[in-house]
Amino acid sequence: MAELKCILWDVDGTLADTERDGHRVAFNMAFEEAGLSRQWDVATYGELLAVTGGKERIRFDIDRGGMPEMPFEEIAKLHARKTIHYQTLIADGLIPLRPGVRRLLEEAYAAGITLGVSTTTTPAALDALIEHSLGKEWFDRFAVLAAGDIVPAKKPAPDIYLYAIDKLGVSAAETIALEDSSNGWKSVRDADMKCVITINDYTADHDFTGADLVVSELGEADSDAIKLLQNPHALDIHHVELKHLQAIMHG
Ligand code: XBP
Ligand code: MG
Fold first, then answer.
1. pTM score, two decimals?
2. Do both 228 and 185 map to the same domain?
3. What's the total number of domains in the chain?
4. Is ligand 1 within 6 A of the CB of residue 13?
5. Is 10 a catalytic residue?
6. What are the pLDDT digits (tens) for 188-226?
7. Are residues 175 and 137 in the same domain?
8. Domain with 39 in it: what CATH number?
9. Which residues keep their CB under 5 angstroms from ion ligand 2?
10. Ligand 1 pocket, residue 10 CB under 6 Å
């Protein structure tokens, strides 16, 4: 049994619902700008989310015949344009944080818990979300921002979580991760960390067997919106608080 020292946050789908109205729209803008006729609708994008990483997602769609063949350099250029469009969408303030995210971040920060980010997304996309949705002070409050191609194997590989704890000098046993998808959960599980899942429309039917808590959202103190979907530690929860994460560590 270990004390909770560190909370690692996934980004897309966990901090904010960025996929449908952020990343997807930005990909489509880049495709149109490049003269490609391909547009990823909401359902198609849901299928493509099985592949983590934007460049990898484009490659996958090419391989299954959705887009014309192109070399890696062109995929990288397309993706760079997508990232710029995504930054603009985020700067327009279109994507709010999910319920309870700011509340739990503030509570954990005030309690001296080490906070970090472990994400598949591109660093520039993460920076935009921190600046415009969270607030610039969070660049200093997160002790590590582990993102994108910093590790060669993206989620569901555990590498991005192992990289983050290595940078922070904490152990997996002292760390809990917050995720929203089965790829994220597999990554946390194989890094040997505890895990809380907040589902969203794209991940509601994913398999989270073995996760420590699965909820519809972290919840706000003045709301009854939270739904407890898997609660193996039998926690008494109205909204997810630091004490619940600590109780999970104590098993
Ligand atoms: C989610 C992802 C990312 C984003 C797109 O990552 O799979 O690929 O959809 O990001 P996470 P990029 O939930 O781990 O944050 O286009 O910048 O790769
Ligand atoms: Mg995610």
1. 0.96
2. yes
3. 2
4. yes
5. yes
6. 999 999 999 999 999 999 999 999 999 999 999 999 999
7. yes
8. 1.10.150.240
9. 10, 12-13, 180-181, 184
10. yes
